[in-house]
């Protein structure tokens, strides 16, 4: 039989509150006291249920990654039949999600570990590794697109992956600076105009001679 007092709070609800606070303020600017207040628990309960602040943050990041706001990139890559459609969907969903006033602006994985103290470098490294994993996923999808003839043989999947990663990270920051969905949708449309088309594609063939 388990001993001790039973937990008197809903763990998922408490985790959701912590995730939102980390998303809004970032790791460094969020204190344990603010976390326990938002989660409706005592510090001892936080440590008993989640470990320390770093462990709680990593669990919050994982929860964010499973949420609609955090999983849209993976869903688009898995569900769309072509790379072009996947990246078009990713950028347009980012334009809708990042400035949505129903939650903190931008992307938690992009913004939550800036300017962390040296003692918390592990947190910064954790998010950087997640972002770099996303870039590798982009690159793999673009390599498949090149092999399938969806993009020309001259296309550089690694450079394209970093380009789209930079666009997404920039959209997140602009959303935190107050950019609207319409503004970010314009950014998404502009970015997709750079998509490298094969020479024999209908879009490429439809261009006027001398156009770019």
From TrEMBL:
InterPro entries: Homeodomain-like_sf (IPR009057), HTH_TetR (IPR001647), Tet_transcr_reg_TetR-rel_C_sf (IPR036271), TetR_C (IPR011075). It comes from the Bacteria. Residues 8-68 form the HTH tetR-type domain. SUPFAM superfamilies: Homeodomain-like, Tetracyclin repressor-like, C-terminal domain. PROSITE patterns: HTH_TETR_2. Coiled coil: none annotated. Pfam families: TetR_C_13 (PF16925), TetR_N (PF00440). Residues 31-50 bind DNA. Keywords: DNA-binding, Transcription, Transcription regulation. Residues 175-212 are annotated as: Disordered. PANTHER family: HTH-TYPE TRANSCRIPTIONAL REGULATOR YJDC (PTHR47506:SF1), TRANSCRIPTIONAL REGULATORY PROTEIN (PTHR47506). This is TetR/AcrR family transcriptional regulator.
């Amino acid at each position: 039989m388990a001993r001790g007092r039973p937990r008197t709070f809903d763990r998922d609800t408490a985790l959701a509150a912590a995730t939102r606070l980390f998303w809004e303020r970032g790791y460094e600017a969020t204190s344990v006291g603010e976390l326990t207040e938002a989660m409706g628990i005592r510090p001892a309960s936080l440590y008993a249920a989640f470990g320390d602040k770093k462990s709680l943050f990593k669990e919050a990041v994982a929860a964010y990654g499973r949420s609609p706001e955090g999983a849209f990139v993976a869903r688009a890559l898995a569900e769309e039949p072509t790379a072009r459609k996947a990246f078009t969907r990713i950028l347009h969903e980012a334009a809708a999600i990042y400035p949505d006033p129903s939650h903190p602006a931008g992307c938690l994985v992009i913004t939550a570990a800036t300017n962390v103290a040296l003692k918390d470098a592990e947190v910064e490294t954790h998010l950087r590794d997640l972002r770099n994993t996303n870039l590798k996923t982009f690159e793999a999808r673009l390599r498949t697109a090149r092999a399938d003839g969806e993009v020309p043989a001259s296309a550089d999947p690694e450079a394209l992956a970093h380009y789209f990663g930079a666009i997404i990270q920039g959209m997140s920051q602009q959303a935190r600076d107050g950019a609207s969905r319409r503004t970010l949708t314009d950014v998404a449309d502009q970015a997709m105009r750079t998509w490298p088309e094969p020479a024999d594609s209908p879009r490429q063939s439809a261009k006027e001679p001398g156009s770019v």
